Amino acid sequence: MLVPLTRQKFEQIIPLIATGQQYKYYWGKFSNFLQRLLVSVVSVVVILLVKALFGLDFGPILFFLGVLGAMFWLWYPVFQASVRNAKCRRYKYSGFFRGRILDWWITDRLIGKQETVNSKGELVIVENREKRINLEVGDDTGFSVELDAPLRPYHKAIARGQIAEMIVMSNRADLGTIEDFSDVYIPNRDIWVNDYPYLRRDFFSETSRRIREDQQDRPRRRRRKYED
Question: Please, which residues have CB within 8 angstroms of residue 81's CB and are 6 or more apart in sequence?
C-alpha cells in the first residue's frame, strides 16, 4: 500500500532541524567529542593569536567568530543532521508505504583497520567488523527495497511476513519511481530498523494510525452504502 503525503506532512515527519535522536546519532562516541573539542580549542587560539599579532579588532564580528568556534563541539552534530535531512527534503513528493518483510539476513561490514604489534614484535593488522541486519521490504505489486542497519539484540524478533512501514521519496507526482526511503518501522513489534533515524517518530506514528483507521473505515462505509 502506498499513500501519497502532502508536503506539509512530509516536512513534519522529516524535519529540517535535527531531532534529539538525530543529534545523538551525530554526537558519536567519546573520541568524536574529543575531536570536536580540539577543533573548538584550536579555533579560539587562532582567533586570539590573530588579534594579538596583527592587532585586528572587528568587534562584534570577532566576538561572533569566537563564540562559533568555541561552541563547535556542541552545534556541529546539529549541522550534520540538518544537512542530511535537507538532502531528503529536496525530493518534491513523498508517500507512506506499508508492505511486508520479504526476507532478512545478517552480514559483516568492515568499519576500520587497526595496526598493532603482537608479543613477537610482529606488525598485525586487526580488522574491526560490525554485524548488520539486512531487510528486503516489499508488497504484492512487485515493489521492493533493501536496507541494512547495525544489528541490535531486539532485531531477533523480526520475521518474514511481518508488516513494515516507511516513508518513500520521489521527484514524480505519481510516485512511479522511488528514489529514496527512510528507516523501517515494524508496528506489531514496535521495532525500528535504521542506520540514521530520519523520521520524527511521533508524527510518523500518528500518520500510520490515521491511515490504518481510514483503511478500516472504508469497508464499513461501503457496507452501509450497500445496505441503504
Answer: 18, 19, 22, 23, 25, 26
Distance (Å, whole) CA 201 – CA 209: 12
What are the cell numbers at 149? 542497519
* CB distance 175 to 130 below 8 Å: no
Q: What is the pTM of this model?
A: 0.81
In single-letter form, the type of residue at position 172 comes to R
Q: Which three cell numbers stand for residue 37?
A: 573539542
DSSP one-letter string for 105-137: EEEEEEEEEEEEE-TTS-EEEEEEEEEEEEEEE
> Residue 203: how many CB atoms within 10 A of its CB?
16
- Cell readout for 103 is 526476507
User: What is the pLDDT, as a whole number, of residue 50?
Assistant: 77
Distance (Å, rounded) from C-alpha 69 to C-alpha 149? 33
Helix (H) or strand (E) holding 20: helix 20-27
Q: What is the pLDDT of residues 55-72, one digit of tens each?
A: 666 667 777 888 899 999
Find out whether 208 and 167 touch, Cβ atoms under 8 Å.
no
Of 119, 170, 163, which is closest to residue 4 (Cα–Cα)? 170
| Strand pairing class (123-138; 93-117) | antiparallel
**Phi-psi domain of 161 (left: phi exceeds 0; alpha: psi -120 through 50; beta: other):** left
For the range 31-34, what are the long-range contacts, defined as Cβ-Cβ under 8 Å and sequence gap of 24 or more? 33/73
What's the whole-number mean pLDDT along residues 106-123? 80
